[in-house]
């Protein structure tokens, strides 16, 4: 665990496709957000949630709200980078139950000398909501929001990022629908 790092779990999504709050879905006896926070906590000095104070305020972790309501995950990223008091920040969506601290540590190592590091697949897709960002990324992300940008990838195009090849896609499996949740459970039990 490093004191100069902060971990942020983005729990502010509406979970429309899941039909229920993804962050609070129980997995192995704990809510999904807590599972993700536990993995992040292995390599970050602090772990906080970015989301609704009423929903998450009494769950044992610090919570900060989005400053731009209803505009998607870019607002959560902005809120975390606005609130941080350290240089390096790991921002992770709450719906990735297979995250691995070792892989996340590789992102921190790759980020040195850049604005951050983002996992990338051979086909060009990226895991923009499981990435490391320097605090200086706040200004360009805030500017993007102020200009009406809502797509995370459009805002990230303004940054000097390193792209880290994903060796095991299961690490970043995310759960967006009841079918994803069922499929994930079946794979784990097999």
Secondary structure class reads alpha/beta
Question: Could you tell me how far the N terminus lies from the C terminus, measured between alpha carbons in angstroms?
Answer: 32 Å
Order of helices and strands: EEEHEHEHEHEEHHEH
Could you name the CATH topology?
Answer: Spore Coat Polysaccharide Biosynthesis Protein SpsA, Chain A
Helix content: 25-40%
For the largest beta-sheet, the strand count, sense and barrel status come to: 7 strands, mixed
Q: Rough shape?
A: globular
Uncertain segments: none
CATH class: Alpha Beta
On the 0 to 100 scale, the average pLDDT is 89
> How many extended strands?
9
- Count of discrete structural domains: 1
The largest beta-sheet arranges its strands as 5-4-1-6-8-7-9
> Treating each run of at least 4 consecutive H or I residues as one helix, how many helices?
7
Under CATH, the homologous superfamily reads Spore Coat Polysaccharide Biosynthesis Protein SpsA, Chain A
CATH architectural category: Alpha-Beta Complex
Strand content: 15-25%
Blueprint of the fold:
Elements: E1 2-10, E2 26-27, E3 30-31, H1 32-41, E4 44-50, H2 53-56, E5 63-64, H3 73-83, E6 88-93, H4 101-111, E7 116-120, E8 130-134, H5 138-146, H6 152-156, E9 161-165, H7 178-189
Parallel strand pairs: 1-4, 1-6, 4-5, 7-9
Antiparallel strand pairs: 2-3, 6-8, 7-8
Helix pairs in contact: 3-5
Question: What tags apply to this protein structure?
Answer:
190 residues; alpha/beta; Spore Coat Polysaccharide Biosynthesis Protein SpsA, Chain A; 7-stranded mixed β-sheet; 7 helices; 33% helix; globular
